[in-house]
Design goal:
heterodimer; A: 130 residues; mainly beta; OB fold (Dihydrolipoamide Acetyltransferase, E2P); 5-stranded antiparallel beta sheet; 3-stranded antiparallel beta sheet; globular; B: 389 residues; alpha/beta; Peroxisomal Thiolase, Chain A, domain 1; 2 domains; 9-stranded mixed beta sheet; 11 strands; 32% helix; 19% strand
């Protein structure tokens, strides 16, 4: 039995992200005023407060910022922060891996997996093949 | 030179229960409130300001104020989770200085163990309107995992070891053996901690605090009233509060708000870390207390692993006696909100009323710090500095 991600509850301002995820696209928000990418996605830039934030396709590549292996859970899993190539760091899970062989700074790549109810693709990461 | 008083803590009371199957939440609040008033030598009718957090059942302060039949002219329900109660001390001092109240009552109480929440693996409250919720709940966020990530990153950046983290629990257990009310009174060794099961790498089971029923209360009052009472004078001379978020995805999760709340409190008090005789530190996990030691300035950033070794936090042994009641790791952590008990033990130390085996001799200055919310996600640090007069 492997960990099944609970489905998110999208809000009006996040719907494009979750719809794109179901098409296999990984979007992040970037500000057209100050050029900074941020996480989690917001309509107003958390750095300059501009409303001119736009969705852009992210590479899906990143590095493990930190992680913890929750090994006493009924379905053990690895929770992690991954720093995206585009700059910001996001919460996620590391999957398809040996949880005891992970390390901070390790390169990872995006993999979408279905949520518990099968309705929503959820952005997770797996170690990049050596 | 005496430091200027913001206000005085005239009463403090910690509920003796750690399991409260037969006591309602409102009753626990009332018992700690009246316990703190009795400790101060004041009566219920002296209270004109009431401060509480969301552990108070009902709408803000209304149900409890009615239950205790308080006649109030000032209320404050600031909620930064476990650090709320030290912020309440600061806000009470400000309200008293502004003439908004004379006798401020602060309460915390609850019975999580009776409501099936006796483990650390608590799920977060399910509020889909919380803007971060959909970006965290799908990944199984819970307290153990995020503190695990904080500890993992500190190990990676600074080489902090499991044995060094264990020393924090060892010190707490040395103190708890003298506290008859403590949840866990057995002295443990570094080996006991690192040989306990890993729960969220690199945290072992004994790196985690207890979850308890019960609570505590404080009475904050103006100088004239405090000086008219028959208790040792505990002066609040500095306060600071600092909420910390994820900065749009550019954060350093091993940095805590204690950097800012501590600096603010030290500046206001006009004292420095080396002057402090006793510290109460929020010890939800061993790593939580360690980051506060660094960020309050008791040792340079990254060096806390070496700092806590060899009993350096044990009263009578080391340089920085901490949590002499046994802390959240061993004594008490009512409703997962540890700020209240941190203030109470600091008051005992300033009064010279801690257990004789752990009392810091001639303790003139004490600091209490709390971290509320979740380190590594969103939290607020609050600091108070107390002086004996």
């Amino acid at each position: 039995m492997t960990y099944q991600n609970p489905a998110p509850e999208p809000s009006p301002d996040s719907l494009p992200f979750w719809q794109a995820a179901n098409r296999g696209e990984f979007l992040i928000k970037q500000c057209e005023e100050c050029d900074q990418a941020h996480w989690y996605p917001r309509p107003c830039c958390p750095f300059c407060a501009s409303a001119k934030t736009v969705w852009r396709q992210a590479s899906g590549r990143g590095k493990i910022y930190s992680y913890s292996y929750l090994r006493r859970m009924a379905e053990p899993y690895v929770i992690a922060y991954v720093t995206l190539e585009e700059g910001p760091t996001m919460m996620t899970n590391i999957v398809d891996c040996d949880p005891e062989a992970l390390s901070i700074g390790q390169p990872v790549t995006l993999v979408f997996k279905p949520s518990q109810d099968g309705e929503q693709a959820v952005p997770l990461f797996r170690p990049l093949e050596p | 030179m005496p430091h200027s008083a913001l206000a005085y803590i005239a009463g403090a009371y910690e509920h003796p229960l750690r399991n409260a199957p037969d006591t309602s939440v409102a009753q626990l609040h009332a018992e700690v409130a009246f316990g703190a008033l009795a400790d101060a030598g004041l009566s219920k009718d002296d209270v004109d300001g009431f401060f509480c957090g969301p552990d108070a059942p009902g709408t803000g302060p209304l149900s409890l104020a009615d239950y205790m039949n308080l006649k109030l002219r000032h209320v404050d329900t600031t909620n930064t989770s476990g650090s709320s109660y030290l912020i309440h001390v600061a806000h009470a001092a400000q309200a008293i200085a502004a003439g908004k109240c004379n006798v401020a009552l602060i309460t915390l109480a609850g019975r999580p163990r009776q409501q099936g929440k006796s483990k650390g693996a608590l799920k977060r409250a399910d509020d889909p309107n919380q803007p971060d919720f959909q970006w965290e709940s799908p990944f199984g966020i819970q307290i153990l995992g995020v503190y695990g990530m904080v500890a993992q990153r500190h190990r990676n950046l600074y080489g902090t070891t499991a044995e060094q983290m264990a020393w924090v629990k060892v010190a707490a257990s040395h103190h708890a053996q003298h506290n008859p009310h403590a949840m866990l009174r057995d002295v443990v060794t570094v080996e006991d901690v690192v040989n306990s099961p890993l729960v969220a790498d690199p945290l072992h089971r004994l790196d985690c605090c207890v979850v308890t029923d019960g609570g505590g209360a404080l009475i904050v009052t103006r100088p004239e009233i405090a000086k008219s009472l028959k208790r040792p004078l505990v002066k609040v001379i500095g306060c600071g509060e600092a909420p910390v978020g994820q900065n749009g995805g550019y954060m350093e999760i091993t940095d805590t708000g204690a950097q800012r709340s501590g600096a603010t409190a030290f500046a206001q008090a006009g004292v420095k870390p080396a002057d402090i005789g006793y510290v109460s530190l929020y010890d939800s996990f061993t790593i939580t207390a360690m980051l506060q030691i660094e960020d309050l300035g008791f040792c340079p950033k990254g060096e806390v692993g070496r700092f806590v070794m060899d009993g350096n936090l044990i009263s009578g042994v080391g340089r920085l006696p901490f949590n002499t009641d046994g802390g959240g790791l061993c004594n008490n952590h009512p409703v997962n909100r540890g700020g209240m008990t941190k203030a109470i033990e600091a008051v005992r130390q300033i009064r010279g009323e801690a257990h004789p085996a752990v009392q810091v001799p001639d303790c003139r200055l004490a600091l209490a710090n709390a971290i509320g919310g979740q380190l590594g996600v969103r939290h607020a640090s609050s600091t108070i500095i107390l002086e004996r007069e």
